Amino acid sequence: MVKVTVDGIDVDVPPRSNVLQACEAAGKEIPRFCYHERLSVAGNCRMCLVEIEKAPPKPFASCAYPVNEGMVVHTDTPMVKKARRGVMEFLLINHPLDCPICDQGGECDLQDQAMGYGGDSSRYDESKRAVKDKDLGPLVKTVMTRCIHCTRCIRFSTEIAGVSEMGATARGEGMEVGTYVQKALSSELSGNLIDICPVGALTSKPYAFVARPWELKKTDSVDVLDAVGTNIRVDSRGPEVLRILPRLNEDVNEEWLADKGRFSVDGLKRRRLDSCWVKRDGKLVKATWEEAFTAIDGKLKGLAGDRIGAIAGDLADAESMLALKDLMGALGSSNLDCRQDGAVYDASRREFYTFNTSIAGIEEADAILIVGSNPRIEAPLINARIRKRFLAGGVRIGLIGAAADLTYPVEHIGTTPAALSDPAVAEVLKAAKKPMLILGAGALARADGAALLAECWKLAAASSMLTTDWHGFNVLQLAASRVAGLDLGFLPGKGGKGLAGMLGGGVDLLWLLGADEFDTAKIGASTFVVYQGHHGDKGAARADVILPGAAYTEKNGTYVNTEGRAQRGQLAIYPPGDAREDWKILRAVSGWIGKHLPYDDLAGVRARLEAVNPVFARVDILPRFGGNETAAPQGGALGDAAFVPAIANYYQTDPVSRASPTMAECTAAHAPALAAAAE
Amino acid sequence: MAEANTQAVVQPATFAFDAESEAKIAYFVAKYPEGKQASAVLPLLDLAQRQMGRTTGSAWVPVAAMDEIGRILGMPPIRVYEVATFYLMFNTAPVGKFHLQVCTTTPCWLRGSDEVVHACRKATGIKGWKETSEDGLFSMTEVECLGACVNAPILQVNDDFYEDMDAARTTALLEALKRGEIPPVGSTIGRQTSAPEGGPTTLTSLSFEKTE
Description:
The structure holds two protein chains of two kinds.
Chain A: E1 2-6, E2 9-13, H1 19-25, E3 49-52, E4 60-61, E5 71-74, H2 78-93, H3 109-117, E6 140-142, H4 152-160, E7 167-169, E8 176-178, H5 192-196, E9 202-204, E10 217-222, E11 231-237, E12 240-246, H6 259-263, E13 276-280, E14 283-287, H7 289-300, E15 308-312, H8 318-330, E16 335-337, E17 367-371, H9 375-378, H10 380-392, E18 396-400, E19 411-414, H11 423-431, E20 435-440, H12 441-444, H13 449-462, E21 466-467, E22 470-471, E23 473-476, H14 482-488, H15 499-502, E24 509-513, E25 528-533, H16 538-542, E26 545-548, E27 557-560, E28 566-569, H17 582-592, H18 602-612, H19 655-658, H20 661-669, H21 671-678
Parallel strand pairs in A: 1-5, 15-16, 15-24, 17-18, 17-20, 18-19, 20-23, 24-25, 25-26
Antiparallel strand pairs in A: 1-2, 3-4, 3-5, 6-9, 7-8, 10-11, 11-12, 13-14, 13-26, 21-22, 27-28
Helix pairs in contact in A: 8-17, 8-18
Chain B: H1 2-8, H2 19-30, H3 41-56, H4 63-73, H5 77-86, E1 98-103, H6 106-110, H7 113-124, E2 131-132, E3 138-143, E4 155-157, E5 160-163, H8 167-178, E6 186-187
């Protein structure tokens, strides 16, 4: 550690820290625009100036100056104040005074720091420079005249997102930040540019001129549009969710959020189910809760338990899945399934279906084998972690599956499961100290899913993936509800039917809890379908009774991400119209049909959750664990079909994103790329 | 500015280096150690510009050429765009056959660069900077110090300096270029390189002849 004195406060900082970090350690606020903890140091905004004793008598850019033993730093001398005021005056020379019409207003670093460190007026009375706006696609709006050339966006897209598409062209007064050729950014993380831009140059296009930050109610929640469990902040005003921003969680998403989770927000207002519907004479008509419950009750009367079934969708929260499972249990049914894609899991041990290394653990791996997955599309933030690991150097990354640009170089070993037995693969994994294997959930949905799981596990067991302090076997889930569903045992019970068994007339009453991702045409013609969910998507179109549920921003729900980390989302706004939180609907149904579920409030449901599986008691925390037991899951014969991408279109994978006009625009904007990828 | 150009300019869809350039590419790329090939971006941009001048009569670097250079050197296209737009010697829009680069920095300006500018405008019909004459022969660019202040004012035509210019000599030079002649480069008043006008004024008594 290096000893540094900042304004008379002694701090110890790690060697190779910079002066800015030392100042932060001493609790001093250093203004900055270009410096960002997760990006390389550019040192070009000059806002973080400090004075250093026994150094040349000039202000130093603290972000780009390394600490030395015994260094004495001053952050509030007259020289520092004057220098910062001068820098601020220069930054504002070409910055328009359009704060009243700027979307960044109220949460703008430049605005705040001009108030804190700037002068009271400008001495510049020449014309300001104007810069033509760039087209970065449907998500990021640009007002390039506001750009102060901090280059954060260039460094983010190059380093974190891994798409070198932004740059600074020309020079001096003519310098412009952009892509030079007009094109939409080909990144699933482009929304983060909006967050890292310290001024209003890059703002959210769908959110343009919608609201001011001080009008918004901020609610902590969890993203459910992929299985990463990104921590988010839901910003709402009145009855509307207006935007979604990432929340810091070093173990999961750092401070990033994938575009689908951020921009699908307008899908939460469209195609919503806001009242009950009951099918009369072949046509769905609006109904009251009583009418809907009566219709269900009428159908349930005299129906044997094994003629009733339930399928949980990909966005379902643990509470509602538990309530549905309990309801089915009370009805004497063990026909349950949470695997809409028909994936095969061995739920006997949790490590067979979770991302055991943990997302943060990726940074320790020294060999990564990706099997049947495209993490860039399936979990952009996990892909960003792998890229982070790649940038740190000393890692070999192999891919078995459809070739794809993952933003880092991979050794493409093969496209079929046969590549798993490639001796070179085993050799690399054996030589590595902390190898990890990522098996895509899409691969488990294949006919030979069980065999793939077993083969991959064996590969893990044969190398040092399963040791007392390292677990290198990972399943990358696609659905936010999947791990919770498996933890709850939302699977066919003894003698129960799975998804395939329930379709084609296997049951007479099918309860769909937001289940839209399977072929609803395969449901038997005489099957009575109850759809409980929030969007009028495929499932609702086939339903005989629709019960309006709550979307993830409208309920207090527990979700377990692909790592097996239980996290809780909070209610940001109330569900629209007659819609209710899903577990409450199920509780009400149970009362109506006389099979009372034993809980009446959220605490009761959560107590029951913990009783069913203790993992639900450990919210947010996920201790690292090793792979102590090496016994492989049940296998079978491997097929020889090539792996196919699990997700065809990143932007539309669930009822929320399919209802979102912004996601539709993204789909259109990236259509050529999608078509090329499909070939 | 740069971005506006790419939209206004009709960009060729493709660009390929010809055999003459290819030979030089190998020479330049080989200069840098393995993994540092991106260092060859400047000479390759120059090659592309010269090839365009040779084949189309307009020495500029289209986006397709920058993309091709990025491909050859294994660097993202935007990194090539950044370099190409940073250096004013690379033209990102078409120019005339003769690219007139007039220095208007202080020494040239004091010595009458305004006259040179006016003469150029009059002879070519060009009204503003970065414009090309109607016959496609000339383009005019205002440049910063060309480093030949001692013989100010300077008019650079493509790669060559014409020094000690005034209005009359500028007009004569441009007329000659129009006729297809290439007048001798260097001082237009006959001084030897940057020696004083009218011959040496100091050290006149010294003889540099070999003495016995």
